[in-house]
UniProtKB/TrEMBL annotation:
<dbReference type="InterPro" id="IPR023210">
    <property type="entry name" value="NADP_OxRdtase_dom"/>
</dbReference>
<protein>
    <submittedName>
        <fullName>Aldo/keto reductase</fullName>
    </submittedName>
</protein>
<dbReference type="GO" id="GO:0016491">
    <property type="term" value="F:oxidoreductase activity"/>
</dbReference>
<dbReference type="Pfam" id="PF00248">
    <property type="entry name" value="Aldo_ket_red"/>
</dbReference>
<dbReference type="InterPro" id="IPR020471">
    <property type="entry name" value="AKR"/>
</dbReference>
<dbReference type="InterPro" id="IPR036812">
    <property type="entry name" value="NAD(P)_OxRdtase_dom_sf"/>
</dbReference>
<feature type="domain" description="NADP-dependent oxidoreductase">
    <location>
        <begin position="15"/>
        <end position="314"/>
    </location>
</feature>
<dbReference type="InterPro" id="IPR053135">
    <property type="entry name" value="AKR2_Oxidoreductase"/>
</dbReference>
Length: 327
């Protein structure tokens, strides 16, 4: 496993880490025993960083991480998120009292005394512009409740706002072959400021595995069904903001990236890892096989300059204008 610095936190984290949204819920049926086996396999293979949130399964994924990492708290780092358990548009949701309550609840579920990275979970842009929330996080950091803090953002604009805040040490961004907008300004500025970047939804909700057809269906409790058009939260969180059938057709055109790389999954993750500004990629998983498949990307050949140019042109010509919602 290769490790990269997480901004200025002093932490070195595995370049392939894992998100735990899928084992918490909203991706169809989950199995606790298989989730724990997946977490154990990842750690056995050198993964030392996991991303979660208080709303993933109403705390389920935080509790699973507590169980899986017991006795390894000093070696396995956890990032969690807050604010979406309440009304994200209500100013009271960002009061010091409420943020402290969110933090203490996560600490209890994680069974830890300190959160390694505490992230604001996709708040409205106005909350980030106002900036009062960062002052509260500064207090929690000074008290030792959190080691560092960051923000999970939806748009490049939000990322750039956060990069102006000196206390922000990490940003979580939607970044994959279908979502390349962050390359122009966000990646270089983050590198300049020493801010870590976590690449979420690296497979565009599975589109970039190449395994879907236009007739693929998802269970009612899977966000790929109930948020397909942004019905519940930002449309960009599902299929990169692309209409599903459009995404399937575009992924079919990308089949060539798998040549010499084993699979589209390996190639899609490798493309992200080829950016030195990225700290880590955080694919999800629901079983051991998916953990192993994602980890294979670290042994996958990098993209050539010509191939990278081909993918930039593909995004500009065929993808950019089809993405729905602000990003």
């Amino acid at each position: 496993m290769n490790y990269r610095p997480l901004g200025r936190t002093g932490l070195q984290v595995s370049e392939i880490s894992f998100g735990t949204w899928a084992i918490g819920g909203a991706w169809g049926e989950t199995n606790e025993a298989e989730s724990l086996r997946g977490l154990a396999k990842a750690m056995d293979e050198g993964v030392n960083f996991f991303d979660t949130a208080d709303v993933y399964g109403d705390g389920r994924s935080e509790r699973l991480l507590a169980k899986a990492t017991k006795g390894r708290e000093d070696r396995i780092h956890i990032a969690t998120k807050f604010c979406r358990a309440g009304d994200i548009h209500d100013p009271a949701n960002y009061s010091e009292e409420q943020i402290r309550a969110y933090c203490e609840a996560s600490l209890k579920r994680l069974e830890r005394e300190r959160i390694d990275l505490y992230q604001i979970h996709c708040p409205p842009t106005g909350v980030l512009r106002d900036g009062a929330v960062f002052d509260i996080l500064d207090k929690l950091q000074a008290e030792g409740k959190i080691r560092a803090y960051g923000v999970s953002v939806e748009t490049a604009e939000e990322a750039l706002i956060c990069l102006e805040r000196p206390g922000v040490q990490a940003l979580q961004i939607i970044f994959n072959i279908f979502r390349q907008k962050m390359i122009a300004e966000v990646l270089p500025k983050a590198a300049e400021r020493g801010v870590g970047l976590l690449a979420r939804l690296p497979l565009a909700s599975g589109l970039l595995t190449g395994k879907f057809s236009e007739n693929s269906s998802f269970s009612a409790d899977d966000h790929r069904s109930f948020n397909r058009n942004g019905e519940q939260f930002n449309v960009g969180e599902t299929f990169a903001g692309l209409p599903f059938e459009t995404g399937v057709a575009l992924s079919r055109e990308l089949g060539w990236i798998a040549e010499g790389r084993g699979s589209m999954t390996h190639a899609a993750l490798r493309w992200i890892l080829d950016f030195p500004e990225i700290t880590c990629v955080i694919p999800g998983f629901k079983n051991v096989a998916q953990v192993e498949d994602n980890l294979a990307a670290q042994r996958t050949p990098s993209f050539s300059s010509e191939e990278k140019g081909r993918l930039r042109a593909f995004y500009a010509d065929k993808v950019h204008d089809r993405i729905r919602g602000a990003y």
